[in-house]
Prior knowledge:
This protein is an alpha/beta fold. The chain is built from 15 helices and 31 strands. Residues 66-309 form the Calcineurin-like phosphoesterase domain.
Amino acid sequence: MNAQHTPEDPTSPASGRTVRRRSVITGTAAAAALAAAGYATPSAAAHGKGRGYGHGGGGGSTTTFTVLGTTDLHGNVFNWDYFKNAEYTDSAQNDIGLAKISTLVDAMRESHAYPCPLLIDAGDTLQGTSLAYYYAKIEPIGRRVVHPMARAMNAIGYDAAALGNHEFNYGIPLLRTFQRQCDFPLLGANALDATTGLPVFPPFVIKRVRVGHHTVRVGILGLTNPGIAIWDKANVEGKMVFPGLVEAAKHWVPRMRRAGADVVIVSAHSGADTSSSYGDALPYPENASTLVAEEVPGIDAILVGHAHVEIGQRIVKNKQTGRDVVLTEPLRWGMRLSALDVTVRRRRRGSGYEVVSVTSQVLNANTVDEDPRIVKLLQADHDKVVTYVNSVIGTSLVAMSAATAPWEDTAALDFINYVQADAVKKAIAGTPEADLPVLSIAAPFNRAAAIPAGEVSVRDVAGLYIYDNTLLGIVLTGAEVKAYLEFSARYFKPVSGTGPFPPSAVTNAVTDTAPNGTPDYNYDVMGGLDAALTYEIDLARPVGSRIVGLAYDGAPVAADQRFVIAINNYRQSGGGNFPGVTTAPVVYNAQVEIRQLLIDWVSEVGTIDPALFASVDWRLVHDGAPITVTP
Length: 631
């Protein structure tokens, strides 16, 4: 890769920062808000002369400035659950959304007025809520429509944001439109042009923080997830490539230092606990932030994203220099705000600053109210989406819940499989594969999803399918179908006897690619369209030999039998590393979103009748006896 000039951000001498909106929190209110959020002022012992009052001269005087960080916002502006049509809540009493983050940022800017904190993000902004979907697909952003996330982040005053893998879900043109609407750079040092190998987004930016009569130059490097090449293959293939984070950081960090960066902060959309879900598809680990810290000298701190976990502070030692690198991750959806306190001092020889120490912590968004400025700014957008998702599109004869879908056959997943298979069956009419039996796969994405009896709204249906996947049709043999189901059955833990067991004793098993447990979205149920595909999953048997009695239309599935499989793009492109799918012949790929397919089906048919699609075709057993799972 060739070095790329990255312009610096000019700073107002009066404020020490670029222009910001006025804080809505002042004085003791700011201090109280931060104390309630869990912020502990760095000790003088750890930071020399204290925050912002170093003289900037020689002799070891120090100053401390703060870098604030968010990640995995996933389209959350307000503390609102669009699928439940209610204020967001969870068992940990978390709150979500940029409106609350804005209040915390204001409090930090009030209490840390000089130098004013920087604010960055570690990616996954554009997908995840009905708000994000609406402004991507229903009323797409453009010249006259500005994305609510861009409007909120501009108003709050972000300095930079790294790209996340979900930024690419709606295609590169929409991402470019969002980029133009942001008043801050979207950074992606390892998002490269597939032909030239050059970055297609700015790799880094250098921000200037005023310290007395001097300036600390803070470099922010953006790194994204190589899995984009797999998960959004249809959107990026032939256009962009995504090498590993370590490789990109090794290239760019020295260039940032030569460009004058006194401090280097990495904003990385890649988890801290090293793991890979790519299998053999890519040579890079999915979660590589710790590896970046260990293997790339010259980094002072990393804002971590992608893993959706909370890391207040983690210290990683660089193998080459022996220096500590601080990692922090502020959970997800705006639940937390990371605060990195960076203490620097003037170099004794030469110009510039050197880092003395870095500490970090996270602030809890559930301790503050939403910023009324952000609420006012985006209330109309929010109301429009609420009206859309609550619009009635049909009725259901009975209630259907996904609560037990991970461990038993449910009508809710049968419904998804039926609609997917029906769409593929109709699409391949008149093709050589038209007479093949059609199967479909679906995962229990959302245990909270439920279709009520009676009127059914957009949000009811959308809750069944919370990801923006598209539908494909591929061809697998009977042997490949069995291998697929065996791989899926790794999701279950081995048990003794038939129970009853709590779900945690049966589901979400740890595997070589899922050290924290297999997520629900990587467990697939397979069903047939014109006739039933039936099988048992015997948890008394070892992994790889659990699928028993696999049959189609009552007859054992032959190894050479051919099936068309309705499958989502995430899975077909290698997501979850399921066997056989990435090389299977593709017979249908019209880029139709599955969630919209479900909504359209209900709108057109009008009535959801489980008698059309629901049957018990698979079950968990132990030595052939049914297993009981009790929530």
